[in-house]
Structures are given as structure tokens and as C-alpha cells.
């Protein structure tokens, strides 16, 4: 059995406008069911542990409703504190999006350490939407940044504009620009269309529509 660790934001407020936020519900629910269907075991960690804040729950979504009623969701409510986790026990780590990660995953030492260790050991790192913010500022053992020269995608400036995510008031910076500035080879599809990029053991998705696709590509490598 393969073991996957979902690493979740603990931030509930974003921007100077103090907007309510958290992890994007579908970006946990959709990949969760992809992994479970293939017999993978899923654990949950968050930066602070306990119950992470959620955003965007849609009861009309079969996966989201199913996840909210699942044992997985109950376990998510008692997530491990990331700093207490040995990521070497997992075959893959996965970073869902939501705006929360734009606050607490940019420079957090536990996030950077978990990402570096997983990547350098040849195990799988997956991230979707705003989740690739976890890949910023990760310095490898040879001194290079993790994303330098890597093919990557994430939520785009066009999608931020479409969602009225204004700089400052809602988002602290534009993720696609920040990834590019650190040397990523960035690609994108039209706003809100599924787009998944695989570069070795690094797999990223552009937006919520890409979440299941990221999990599917991770499963292929697993």
C-alpha cells in the first residue's frame, strides 16, 4: 500500500481586507477519492495541527459532499502538526490550494523541509492551484532552488482577476509571477480549464479543475 500525506494550510484570513479563507474544499475532496479508489492510504497534516479552515464547500458536488461525510474528513479534523511528522514515512506529499497557503506556506521551515526531503529522496511532490506556493524558496542540498528550470503550473494572474482577487486586499502576490521569477518554466491553459504538468517526480495543476488530474498523475508514478 502506498501512503500519501496531504499538507494543508492553517490560515483562515488573507489580505489586508481580512477575507475568510482556508484550503479549497474540492482540492482536497477530489484528489482524496482518486487516491482512495486506487488503494492508497491518505493522512493529513497541517501547519498548526488540529482542524484546518476550509473554503468553497459546494454541497452540490458529489465528491465534496461525500468527503464531508467520510472518515477521511473526520480525520482531517484531527490533522497532525506538520513539524511532528516524519515525511520519510510517505511515498508522496500533496499540497492542495486555497488562498490560505499564500500566507503560511511561502517561507514556513516545516513546509520547505518536507518539500525538499520528499523531492530529493525521489518520492513524489504534488500541488494544485495555489498549492505550488509550497515550492517557492525551497533550497536543495546543492544550493539550487527546487523549481529552477522545472516545468510548473499554478493558478494564474488571469484566474485571479476573474475571481476578483486583487493584489493586497485579497492576495499578497501573484503566484505565477513568483514561480517564474525563481526560474520555473511556467505553462498554463485557458482560465479554469484543467492543466497538469509533470516534470520528473514533481507534479503541478493549474486550478481546481486540475486537482483530480494531479492525483491521477501521482498515482501513475506511485
How does this structure look, described?
With 222 residues, the protein is an alpha/beta fold. It contains eight helices and 13 strands. It has a single domain (3-221), classed as Rossmann fold (3-Layer(aba) Sandwich). Helices cover 30% and strands 19% of the residues. The strands form four sheets. The protein has a seven-stranded mixed beta sheet, sandwiched between helices. A two-stranded antiparallel sheet has the order 2-3. It has a two-stranded parallel ribbon with strand order 4-6. Helix 1 (25-37) packs across helix 2 and helix 1 packs parallel to helix 8 (211-221). The longest helix has 13 residues, at 25-37. It starts with a strand and ends with a helix. 49% of the residues are buried.
Q: What's the structural blueprint in terms of helices and strands?
A:
Blueprint: E1 3-8, E2 13-14, E3 19-20, E4 23-24, H1 25-37, E5 41-46, E6 54-55, H2 62-68, H3 71-76, E7 80-81, E8 92-95, H4 101-104, H5 109-120, E9 124-128, E10 151-152, H6 157-162, H7 175-181, E11 185-186, E12 196-199, E13 202-205, H8 211-221
Parallel strand pairs: 1-5, 1-8, 4-6, 5-7, 8-9, 9-13, 10-11
Antiparallel strand pairs: 2-3, 12-13
